[in-house]
């Protein structure tokens, strides 16, 4: 009997599938650790929280960073589409590549039904890529998971803050962000 194994795809193969039209924007997928994964449908609380958080952060970081919403980033074995990516300003507006780990200041995932994936699988992917600052906004519990100090085995620091907490991005310590501004009003 022959054992079956999953085929793991490289970022380059993933791009070739898009270029060839095998994968299209309509497929709503992302590459996670070599696996092509269907993205979850967005509920109104997820979409609203993502828009509110993105708008607030854009306002606070104007002229200091690009704030990208639900656009790809390229890592060694993954090409996820985090809900919010705060990245270095690129003169070409990332027209010739997606931001890579060295260009990322902070990633934020908004979690309504995907908390385990966001705090386990994606956290490990981002830690292995040496993303220094990763936040997960848990919409249901109105809490923020703050992951820092990445290692190849995961983040060494994880704190959970309530929606009345305040946090500053590592790359912009002078900018304190009240978490209540990122969540939808109650």
Describe this entry's structure for a reader:
Helix content is 22%, strand content 28%. The strands form three sheets. It has a six-stranded mixed beta sheet. The mean pLDDT is 94. The N and C termini lie far apart (57 Å). It is built from three helices and ten strands.
If you compute it from the alpha carbons, what radius of gyration comes out, rounded to the nearest whole angstrom? 17 Å
Q: Look at the structure and name the CATH superfamily.
A: tt1808, chain A
CATH class category label: Alpha Beta
**Count of alpha and pi helical runs:** 3
Named at the architecture level, the CATH assignment is Alpha-Beta Complex
Q: What's the CATH topology name?
A: tt1808, chain A
- Order of strands across the main sheet: 3-4-5-6-7-8
Helix content: 10-25%
Percent range for β-strand residues: 25-35%
Per DSSP E runs of 2 or more residues, the count of β-strands stands at 10
Order of helices and strands: HEEHEEEHEEEEE
Structural class from helices and strands?
alpha+beta
